Amino acid sequence: EEVTESDDEDNLSSVLHQRAKMPWRACGKYLSAAGILLLPLLLLSQLLKHTVMVAIDYCLALWTEHAISVKIEPETKNCSQCMEFDHSPYSKVFSILCCLGIILCLVTSIAVEWTGLKVTKKLHSSLLNKIILAPMRFFETTPLGSILNRFSADCNTIDQHIPATLECLSRSTLLCVSALAVISYVTPMFLIALVPLAIMCYFIQKYFRVASRDLQQLDDSTQLPLLSHFSETVEGLTTIRAFRYEAKFRQKLLEYTDSNNIASLFLTAANRWLEEYIGACVVLIAAVTSITSCLYNKITSGLVGLGLTYALMVSNYLNWMVRNLADMEIQLGAVKRINGLLKTEAENYEGLL
């Protein structure tokens, strides 16, 4: 019995270790199918877009700081030098950056959708050729529903869900990195606490992804019986009233609702825990370092406000990054399953084609 228990514990630990790992091979297969040109275009457009977004916020911070400094300290200047603040240079730069950001957002969206379309067409064409040239023993050992599922559900996931999740993941990741870069630029003391904070975030997201995926599956699995029971009750309402089973079906509906609410509550609590815990640490460290730098190093209030604004948004960005990472991990299972069928050996046929 002790040997059996130890074997079960080893198997459980290995399963948990496998679930905590990211399917990098499936991710590499998806990105390699995008081609040599589309992948650099996608990365470059994302980097330029978020660089322009940070430049817009920095321009607004400088604009606000200079406008306030002119209005607050007029007595330090002579009467001949007292002039109204000229907003035209800042407005022109702000308008140009906004137009450039809109164009880059459009280019990024087109690049993401184009990448998803090319990957889907390439994987579907390769899968179709493999299935057509597959030997007869493949169809005798593989269920027909499994093959149809690869062409329907998995191709639909690769076609519609993965490009949107990839765009959200890249956007939230770059927003989080840019926010940390802005905070580090405003207050270099933040870099001292960034290393232990990054290590802590790594281990937290490693375990959170497993829990979030399980809770999401639990939420989906408890929602299906609720919807099925509700539709069956509506369709058989006449029969239920004839046999006077209203109380029984009402109690069953309440039980299914409670089960789904419990799973949804735990999922929401886990997401809030991740957002509030890490976000509170980032905001606390950023606020202390910003105020200290403002008091001793004479940093302008506009840059301090910019750093604190990005610190307040880091928690939201980090939460969405981990959520999208968990969704991407689930959706890459479709690429992994299709890649498994692509390894099927073709029929040895030497006749005419």
Automatic annotation (TrEMBL):
<dbReference type="InterPro" id="IPR036640">
    <property type="entry name" value="ABC1_TM_sf"/>
</dbReference>
<feature type="transmembrane region" description="Helical">
    <location>
        <begin position="30"/>
        <end position="48"/>
    </location>
</feature>
<feature type="domain" description="ABC transmembrane type-1">
    <location>
        <begin position="41"/>
        <end position="329"/>
    </location>
</feature>
<dbReference type="GO" id="GO:0005524">
    <property type="term" value="F:ATP binding"/>
</dbReference>
<keyword id="KW-1133">Transmembrane helix</keyword>
<feature type="transmembrane region" description="Helical">
    <location>
        <begin position="303"/>
        <end position="322"/>
    </location>
</feature>
<dbReference type="GO" id="GO:0140359">
    <property type="term" value="F:ABC-type transporter activity"/>
</dbReference>
<keyword id="KW-0813">Transport</keyword>
<dbReference type="GO" id="GO:0016020">
    <property type="term" value="C:membrane"/>
</dbReference>
<dbReference type="InterPro" id="IPR050173">
    <property type="entry name" value="ABC_transporter_C-like"/>
</dbReference>
<dbReference type="Pfam" id="PF00664">
    <property type="entry name" value="ABC_membrane"/>
</dbReference>
<keyword id="KW-0472">Membrane</keyword>
<feature type="transmembrane region" description="Helical">
    <location>
        <begin position="179"/>
        <end position="205"/>
    </location>
</feature>
<keyword id="KW-0812">Transmembrane</keyword>
<protein>
    <submittedName>
        <fullName>ABCC8 protein</fullName>
    </submittedName>
</protein>
<feature type="transmembrane region" description="Helical">
    <location>
        <begin position="93"/>
        <end position="112"/>
    </location>
</feature>
<dbReference type="InterPro" id="IPR011527">
    <property type="entry name" value="ABC1_TM_dom"/>
</dbReference>
<keyword id="KW-0547">Nucleotide-binding</keyword>
<keyword id="KW-0067">ATP-binding</keyword>
<feature type="transmembrane region" description="Helical">
    <location>
        <begin position="277"/>
        <end position="296"/>
    </location>
</feature>
